[in-house]
Amino acid sequence: GGGLGPSNISNDIHSPSLYPSHITGSAQDLYVIGVQEGCPNRQEWQNRLQLTLGHRYVLLHSAAHGVLYLSLFIRRDLVWFCSEVECATVTTRFFPLIKTKGAVAASFTFFGTSFLFINAHFAAGDSKVKQRIQNYEKIIKDLHRFDEVFWFGDFNFRLSKSRSEVDSILENLPENDMSSLLQYDQLSEEVTKGSIFKGFKEGEIHFRPTYRFNIGSDDYDTSKKQRTPSYTDRVMYKSRNQDDIHVLKYGSCSLMRQSDHKPVFGLFEVLIKPGNRQTSDASTSARKHGSDASACVLQPQLTEGHVFDNVTVTSAGRLARALTSSPQARPLLRVLAHILALKLHACLLTIA
């Protein structure tokens, strides 16, 4: 699953050094991290994420639905301009207490633009296309209320070819040209039919299938089941205004071998609408996760006509604590009620 996106991490903790440099090496404004099969020690996972992102970021919000985790980190100087985060969960299992499939979502408003981030895990199995569409339909209610929607996770759609046929295509695949594989992608086929993700877009896929690998290696499944390599992990996006979201990068974390999936990430630039400055509800959320507001938020001093540029968002797992220390917050002398333009760079990571 705008730093990191969808991923299944099972019982292991990913090493932050294995994420591509454009996720952790360049300063983003917002990181959204979704995990579909989280490790039992969620606090340790969150601590690792906080350590990786560093003291410039605070935990805006984190939520969970069983083993699905969703975390939002934002630059500490921007938290002052976010509304309070709201979250919701949906289970798609027949028995509601079994929380391994479904979705966890979080929404907030940043200046005049409302965001919704959904981390989902759909039904598994090569033939369960109908069930996956039903999972989608159960989750999709009320999406129209938001300006920008990012939906990512382990959607479990497969390639409609046998293992031997896919292996043959992979052996002769031109570098960065996945069209010969994607013509058999179940998700692309259903999107074209209009049966799922209506109005959503996806970045161009120039990476190899992210499922299923032998854990600890780069070899596709060699077990008795010989599962067909597939693009199960995706990042989809939808905007109320057509040109608000631009894809900067869409790829996979190919060096990560702790799971049978390779995490997928998206890096996005989002145009933010003018709007009223939000109150400090978000700093209240940050305080609940471990820090005094005065230590969490370095309040910026804005003047009339100030324009933010190069603001970034990212998606993938679940986060830990907010900052434990930071420079003493300065009084806010003047706050701009309306801004003219804001570009938000969003990176979404889905870890299946």
TrEMBL record:
Origin superkingdom? Eukaryota
Positions of the Inositol polyphosphate-related phosphatase domain? 7-276
Where does the sequence pass through the membrane? 103-124
- Which GO BP terms sit in this record? phosphatidylinositol dephosphorylation
What's in the keyword line of the UniProt record? Membrane, Transmembrane, Transmembrane helix
> Known Gene3D superfamilies for this protein?
Endonuclease/exonuclease/phosphatase
SMART domains given in the database record: IPPc
Tell me, what is one Gene Ontology molecular-function annotation carried by this entry? inositol-polyphosphate 5-phosphatase activity
InterPro entries referenced in this protein's UniProt entry, alphabetically: Endo/exonu/phosph_ase_sf, INPP5E, IPPc
Annotated protein name in UniProt = Inositol polyphosphate-related phosphatase domain-containing protein
